[in-house]
Amino acid sequence: MALFTRIRSVFVMIALSGPLLLTGCVSVPDSIKGASQNIEQNFARVHASPQSFVGWEARFGGTVVNVVNQKEGTMLEIAVSPLDEGARPILGSSSEGRLIAKTPLFLDPVDFKNRLVTVVGKITGSVDGKIGQTPYTYVTLDISGYQRWRLAQQVVLPPQPGPWGYGPGPGWHGQGWGPYWGPGWGWYNPGPAQIHTYVTQ
Known about the structure:
Structural class: alpha+beta
Largest sheet: 5 strands, mixed, barrel
Protein name: Outer membrane lipoprotein
Low-confidence stretches: 1-23, 169-181, 183-187
Helix content: 10-25%
Number of strands: 8
InterPro entries: OMP_Slp
Number of helices: 3
Keywords: Lipoprotein
CATH class of the domain at 43-153: Mainly Beta
Radius of gyration: 24 Å
Pfam family, one: Slp
Strand content: 35-45%
Order of helices and strands: HHEEEHEEEEE
CATH architecture of the domain at 43-153: Beta Barrel
CATH superfamily of the domain at 43-153: Nucleic acid-binding proteins
């Protein structure tokens, strides 16, 4: 019985850790690692006092809501989101504010508008503008590196039966049909497959 308990525990752990295995080991891409050992990533703190952070290297990311091409370069207006350990914007998170990120390069709006992006560079202060008709103060940053992201999807199947027919689910267990852990005839998991959306390069 102890063996079956251990087997059950193993399969429960596998079932619970399945979604975590999809992302694998993550690291910050070279394009946005930056040059500093301590890169500022707390956008709320910077937005509260932009002038206090002028000259600091920072890394922020989110959704590009506007792209403005000018003779001297491109400005990206970014709705900033929290970043995960790989510097990817976290899906489903609320916007933390707006950032104007500038680069002397030409960036085609087709490649950036409504896309997820992470930028790294020096904070230059702030600029007043509007979101719709509402006055708004944007944090400004000069881009030294950027990373575009894309969304991908993967099907996550429900836990499958273990060896010898052991697993959670309906089966014949001597008292009739019903859910239980133990040997079963024709054990199956009736749960639907889940679609997992994640951010990747």
